[in-house]
Amino acid sequence: MTSPIEITRVVQKLIDKIGSEYEHEIIPVKPDPAATPGNSYFNVQEKVAKDGGNLVYGWAVWLSDFICEGEHYAVWEDEDGNLVDITPPRVPLDKLLFIPDDRFTYEGKHIANIRSSVIDNLLVEHIILLADMKDFLLGFATRLGDGQYHFSTFTGNVYNHYDTLFNNALLFFREGGKLGSACYCGSLKPYSQCHGKNLPATIEKVKDTVVKMNDLANEEKAAEDSQKE
């Protein structure tokens, strides 16, 4: 994905979907020597501790040829009030479209991305559903830093399953797959009648199961803790 510099209709649609009260800004990308990719929260925290300034939460907007995506993100504000992205980018960039938003602050739990399809294609909608499902599952994990998360065994297994489905669907799309194309799994059935069949309903059922399993695990832990007291 690349960072859009001009506000297109697609990007404006995502900005409206995010709904921040603050105006978007195009800010410079100047990676700090000590910063690491994919760790904007930690990078800016360390920058503030070292050089002063402030951490500003918001959304980094990324645009590909089929998805526009808002990633919850942190940038550095210098003493003059200028915003700078100090996190090394995934691809070479010198500017970032950033939307300040203080409604969400990072407290060790994943904050889901916000996505919109760029093209009218149901397979892309499935890719977004799978990406959203991964975000949902990450909400039950604890972030350890450097892109690492700690899951319960059950939720971790579900996450790995949907991560695989997401990667398969993405590759399938990239290679020209369509709803009527033979499914990527090799079943010879059309994707729409195989891994794409009833995908939204299936995801909702799995979400319900994950919530129940995590509630049960929390109840068992609370009972164990009360017995120790």
Describe the structure.
The protein has 229 residues and is α+β, with helices and mostly antiparallel strands. It folds into 2 domains: 92 residues, no CATH class; 108 residues, no CATH class. Helices cover 40% and strands 19% of the residues. It contains 5 helices and 8 strands. Strands 1, 2, 3, 4, 5 and 6 form a 6-stranded antiparallel beta sheet that branches. It has a two-stranded antiparallel ribbon with strand order 7-8. A hairpin with a 3-residue loop joins β2 and β3. α3 packs antiparallel against α4. The N and C termini lie far apart (51 Å). 24% of the residues are buried. The N terminus is likely disordered.
Q: In summary, what is this structure?
A:
With 229 residues, the protein is α+β, with helices and mostly antiparallel strands. The protein has helices at residues 9-18, 40-51, 122-138, 153-174, 199-228, and strands at 25-28, 54-63, 67-77, 83-84, 95-100, 114-117, 142-145, 148-150.
Shape: globular
Secondary-structure element sequence?
Answer: HEHEEEEEHEEHH
> How much strand?
15-25%
Helix content: 25-40%
Count of extended strands: 8
Count of the domains: 2
Radius of gyration: 20 Å
